[in-house]
Structure formats: structure tokens, C-alpha cells
Amino acid sequence: MSKEETHYRVLFEAINKFSIAVFNAYGTEEVLQILKTKIKYLINCSEFEFYYLAGHNVEKFCGSAAESSSLFLYDLAPWMFELYNTGIPYYYLEGKGETVTETRGWSFRKQEKFGSIIIIKSDQNAPFTNRYITMVKLINEILCAKISNYRLIKELDEKTDKIETLVLEQEKLIEARTKKLKESNENLTQLIQFNTHQIREPIARTISLMDIKDDMGIDLWEEEFWPDMRQAVADLEDAVNSIVSKVDRLESDNI
Amino acid sequence: MRSIYLVDDQPVLNKINKRFISMIDPEIAIYDFTEPQIALNNIVEHKPMLILLDLNMPEMSGWEFLDQLNLIDMDMKVIILTSSDSQKDKATASLYPTVKEYIIKPLSKAGLADIISRYF
To answer: Is A196 on the interface with B (CB under 8 A)?
Structure first.
């Protein structure tokens, strides 16, 4: 097996392990640790930074320091902003002789509002060569897929929370309305019971008074029961008025 | 002696029923009360064969009257005579073994005659 073949075989195994590790990572902290420990097996670099951009929000993953932070698009350095907008790879060399540091940058735009940037710094101890560029693209794809997956899960969780809150609010609303309906039903039942007695009682009295008239003769009946008849009719009128005012009160309570 | 209690807070109804019963069977002793408590106070002495009982009364309801009656160790028959056609009241009445019938007012002379023929 040639030296080149061995190199690619090792690289294949490394990217395989890297992609499995990222795929299985539980959170961004774990992704950062993977970047810190495994990126050195994939590319030669002294510093590795990955930026995930979604609209105006930027998530920065610093592989060498295993740190992440949230920024806004306009917080990015002007050269990074230009890199993201133009898509032209960035290269900058600073220092002289053995202290030379190279900074390289690539931007990858998925859609108008989504994309990523990878910044790699290298020096003589970890020289970066062009053959790593394919690896950079591959790493970008793996990280983008993972992070967009996290964001989707987060968005889903937030929506689930919102739905749960809405459901709770709806339940409270239904409970309040059910309570009002029960009260309304209770009031109606009371009204019906009240009507039953208040209306039927004087009516029953009137009917009984009329019944007995036939057995007594009109003169005796008038003498003995006419005041009762007047009272029964008056009680009936009171009952009707009382019911009308109760219904009015119920209607105004329901408005 | 055959006797009947009329317990209703409306004196005119007691008066009408009393007159009807007298016409139907003059030998029945009739005691009418507008205050249920007074009826209870006299019940052991009179031992009525039948009680016509109203439910909605201000001082003591028909239900309270029946509860008190349960405490007296006497074989009583009660007919509820009320203007309430509430199902709840009918269901409650069925829980009292002393209550034999639930009749909604008004009770005609023919109705009273039927009751007297069946209970006396």
C-alpha cells in the first residue's frame, strides 16, 4: 500500500469516526468536545472555527477552545461579512519566517438566510495544504446537518411548549365556560322550580275555588269564597311579575 | 274513628277540601292545619288514617314534616298534595315508605272521592 493510500485510509477512518461521533452527540457541548479532540485527525490546523448563520443570528463554535457563543451577523469582522456575502475564499498571511500564521476562510450558503463559515488558522507546525479543502467541505456538511437538526428540535420543543400553553389556556377557558354554563343551568333549574310552585299554586287554588262553586251555589260561594278568589288572582299576578323580573335578571347576568 | 289530616299553609285549600270530604263522607273526622308543627303535636292523639300533605310551606316543609313523622312509631299513610311537578320532588317522595301517592294540585271533588274510597 502506497503512502498516499495509507493517508487516505487513515483519513477515511477519521472522518467516519468524526461523523458518527457528531451524529450521536447529544448537545452542542458534546459537538465542541468532538471538534476539539477529533479535528486534528482530519486537517492540519492550529485553530478551527465554525459559524452557523441563520438570518441575523450566528452561532460560533470554536473547536480549539471548545467554546460556543451566539452573535449577530453584524458582529462579524468585516472580512468575514464579505466572505459570507461574496463566497470568495479568504486567505491572509501574517508574520515572517517561522512565526508565519495563515488564516483561511470558506463560506457555504445553503439558502438565502442560512449558511456557514469555516475559519482555519495554520502555521508551520500544522501546515494546511489544499488537499484538506475537500475535508473542510465534508466537515461543514456534517456540522451543518447536525446543527440544523438541533435547531429544528429546539424549534419543535418551543412550538410544543406553545401548544401545551395554548391547550392549558383552552382548558382553563373551557372550565370557566363550563362553570358559567353550570351556574346558568342551576339558575334556570331554580327558575323552573320557582315557576312551578309560584304559578301553579294560585292556579290550583283558583281551579279548586271554581270547582266548589258548583256544589255551593253562587250566593253562598260569593259570600264565603270571593275574597279568596281575589287573593288567588292577586297572588297569580305577583307570581307572574316575580318570574318576569327573575328572567330579566338572568338575561342581564348572561350579557 | 276514621279521621283525616289536611296539612297545607293555604287555609282556603284546607277549607275547600274539608267541605268536599264532608260532602263525600260526613262521618270522617277532618283536622286541618296551616302549621305542620301543630299537626305533628296532635297526631298521636288523633291517630289519622290518612294525611294530605303539602310540600311547600313556610314554617316547616313537607319533607321536614315527613322526617318528624318517621320518628313517631305509628302506621301512617301520607298522600302528598302539591303544586310542584318536579321530578326531583317525586323521586324524593318515593324514598319515604309512608308516602303512598304523589298528587299534583288541584284535587277535584271526584279525585277526593276516589281517595276516600280507597283509603277508608
So the answer is: yes
Cell digits for B78?
301520607
| Residue A110 neighbours by CB under 8 Å, 6+ apart | A116, A144
Nearest to B108 among A192, A197, A211 (CB): A211
Q: Which three cell numbers stand for residue A74?
A: 453584524
Q: A212, B19: Cβ pair inside 8 Å?
A: yes
pLDDT digits (tens, 9 = 90+) for A47-99: 999 999 998 999 999 987 778 888 898 899 999 999 999 999 999 999 887 78
Residue closest to A149 by CA, chosen among A13, A255, A26, A8: A26
Inspect the interface and report whether the beta carbons of A201 and B56 lie closer than 8 Å. yes
Tell if the CB–CB gap between A211 and B13 is shorter than 8 Å.
no
Please say whether the dihedral angle defined by the alpha carbons of residues A32, A37, A42 and A45, taken in this order, is positive or negative: positive
End-to-end CA distance of chain B: 11
Average of per-residue pLDDT across B109-116:
95
d(CA B72, CA B75): 9
The alpha carbon of residue B16 is apart from the nearest alpha carbon of chain A, in Å, by 7
| A211, A221, A224, best to mutate vs chain B, most B CBs in 10 Å | A211
**Nearest residue to A184 (alpha-carbon basis) of A79, A255, A103, A86:** A255
C-alpha dist (Å) from residue A84 to A55, A70, A94, A128: 12, 17, 22, 21
Q: What is the bridge-based pairing of β-strands A101-109 and B3-7?
A: unpaired
- A209 touching chain B per CB within 8 A: yes
CA angle A32/A35/A37 to nearest 5° reads 110
pTM: 0.55
* Chain B touched by A53 (CB under 8 Å): no
Q: Which residue has the cell 264532608?
A: B22
Element (H, E) at A112: none
- Say if residues B54 and B81 touch (Cβ distance below 8 Å): yes
Q: Which of A192, A200, A212 sits opposite B16 (nearest CB)?
A: A212
Please give the ipTM for the structure prediction: 0.90
Q: Cα separation of A66 and B35, whole Å?
A: 93
Backbone angles phi, psi at B84, to 5 degrees: -90, 125
DSSP summary character for residue B98: T
